[in-house]
Amino acid sequence: MSKNFDVVVIGGGPGGYIAAIRAAQLGFSTACIDEWKNAKNGPAPGGTCTNVGCIPSKALLQSSENFEHAGHAFADHGIKVDGLSIDIPKMLARKDTVVKQNNDGILYLFKKNKVTFFHGRGSFAKAADGGAGYEIKVAGAAEETITGKHIILATGSNPRQLPNLPFDEKLILSNTGALAIDAVPKKLGVIGAGVIGLEMGSVWRRVGAEVTVLEALPAFLGAVDEQIAKEAQKLFVKQGLAIHLGVKIGAITAGKKDVTVEYTDDKGNAQKAVFDKLIVSIGRVPNTTGLNHDAVGLKLDERGFIAVDHDCKTNLPNVWAVGDVVRGPMLAHKAEEEGVAVAERIAGQHGHVNFNTIPWVIYTSPEIAWVGKTEQQLKAEGVAYKAGTFPFMANGRARALGDTSGMVKFLADAKTDEILGVHIVGPMASELISEAVVAMEFRASAEDIARICHAHPSLSEATKEAALAVDKRSLNF
Ligand code: FAD
Ligand code: NAI
């Protein structure tokens, strides 16, 4: 087997494995190195997303939502469920199966596309002589050195810990531990009301935990459109999530079986809470551990991300970086888009990532999804805009589903009617947002969406109606 490659990708998460596949499709001899291990020490490509992120969290969100529906929502349909209970080890085992299917799927895709996979840690040995590119050491079961003319770094991110509070994954949990709690905790504390806090808090609340979320900022989901965030907060509180905003976390003391969190509330009062488990979800930090980047003079920025330009080029010739380890949103689909664009740029093509149309989704119930600008951003930027909203309460399909919470909101340029942002809180927002992304990518106007025939009865009619509402013409509300 040749050890000299056109492209060597370090990291097999969504950024890395997709970059490797695209590079191979473009005719480059390609290697992908990933160090993630499964329970049997075997390879588990797919990175954070597949192993302890997107995929397992969505598996648990689905299981816990099914449980909640069986307990509450089914009764309205005349379906009686007696003696309802949940088997947590089975729920976790199903999640593990879903993860393994994805790991295996990636190994299959590597074979299919002739990407050579190395299981181990990749690090810079040195810039190789003779135009071969860079020497990369792979430390796995054995140690070997390979070369790559182009290197794509996709080493992802790690959970941020609170100062002096390392994750033990028993009491103090990162996302890894939060996805593997083996019995429902009576009292679950969550520090950080961000995406992980809300998704994981929802999972464990639905299966019976009393969940308290402590958030430093005074506003709930500050990056989300204010109207949508307010609506979501109302719905989460109604479901039973206790959300405390504007808190200042003080001492945290882990005992043998519980953990005590001292904090100051938004009124300045000292508070103390005791939890059976504590999830700390206060953001993530870029991962460059073990890359030996200093040996080749690879530049990091002041926050520890690999410094890249708009095209994901680093300061070193033919070294690129994508995904969570570089600036921009920490999202799997952003990492993938960058991976594809870099492979295409290496091939001399015009790889393209449109940062204005990257969708965000929070997979709570109801889901929250958005693309483009929020109303508060448009106000701050002094952009003249029109807004239109449509509630799911007035949508026939949502009524039939029994899920009428939330709304669709359109923001369009006051003069040109170009769509500037679309924000959804409600059923299947994760799927509905795609129409808005496509529309914005084609620079459509609200009128374009308003004039397109949408199937009846469907949730997507709420999107059309919100577009109509921009000119105060909604038909069903
Ligand atoms: P990663 O997925 O982190 O992959 C990096 C890989 O590189 C890892 O396998 C790592 O082991 C490996 N690696 C690192 N250094 C080396 C080295 N030196 N040698 C060899 N291998 C190395 N995003 C979404 O878009 N949707 C979601 O629903 C979503 N849910 C999430 C839920 C949770 C709980 C978390 C924590 C994250 C979630 N994310 C979600 C974010 C998403 O997981 C990340 O944005 C995404 O995984 C980033 O991809 P990446 O390829 O940059 O890095
Ligand atoms: P986050 O950035 O979404 O939220 C962190 C929250 O913690 C913020 O609200 C912040 O104000 C708060 N916080 C920070 N320090 C604090 C402190 N000391 N005390 C109290 N609150 C504090 O980060 P999170 O939830 O850890 O997720 C990390 C990233 O992973 C996300 O930003 C996202 O990029 C990705 N992700 C994406 C998902 C999706 O797309 N559905 C799901 C989960 C994660």
TrEMBL record:
It is found in: Cytoplasm. Its cofactor is FAD. Its main location: cytoplasm. GO terms for molecular function: dihydrolipoyl dehydrogenase (NADH) activity; flavin adenine dinucleotide binding. Pfam families: Pyr_redox_2 (PF07992), Pyr_redox_dim (PF02852). Keywords: Cytoplasm, FAD, Flavoprotein, NAD, Nucleotide-binding, Oxidoreductase, Redox-active center. GO terms for cellular component: cytoplasm. Binds 1 FAD per subunit. NAD(+) binds at residues 192-199, 215, 283. Disulfide bonds join 49-54. Residues 5-339 form the FAD/NAD(P)-binding domain. Its EC number is 1.8.1.4. The keyword Flavoprotein applies. It is an enzyme of class 1 (oxidoreductase). The keyword Oxidoreductase applies. FAD binds at residues 58, 122, 155-157, 324, 330-333. Belongs to the class-I pyridine nucleotide-disulfide oxidoreductase family. PANTHER family: DIHYDROLIPOYL DEHYDROGENASE, DISULFIDE OXIDOREDUCTASE. NCBIfam families: lipoamide_DH (TIGR01350). This is Dihydrolipoyl dehydrogenase. The gene is lpdA.
